[in-house]
Amino acid sequence: MNEDPQSNDQPLSDRAESLSRVTFFKRLERDELEHLATRVQQVTFSANETIFNENDKGDALYVIDSGAVRISFPVALPISRSSPRAPMS
Known about the structure:
Shape: elongated
Largest sheet: none
Helix content: 10-25%
Number of strands: 0
Radius of gyration: 23 Å
Number of helices: 2
């Protein structure tokens, strides 16, 4: 069973601490969290800035440390078809 990352006498680095609060990383050991923390890059985005678009190459994993993200994508509407005698509305 994994130890609680907080159970060691030495505190986690700030980045490892942030990662330890993410459900996806909760099962990692201290040393794994610290190693991962050395590999992450902190980025900041402005309000309403596009982070990525649909069909972009998936080459990053984003973890939201603070703030909020809106995910939106276009919805395909059904095409209205009519008979030759009926007007399209």
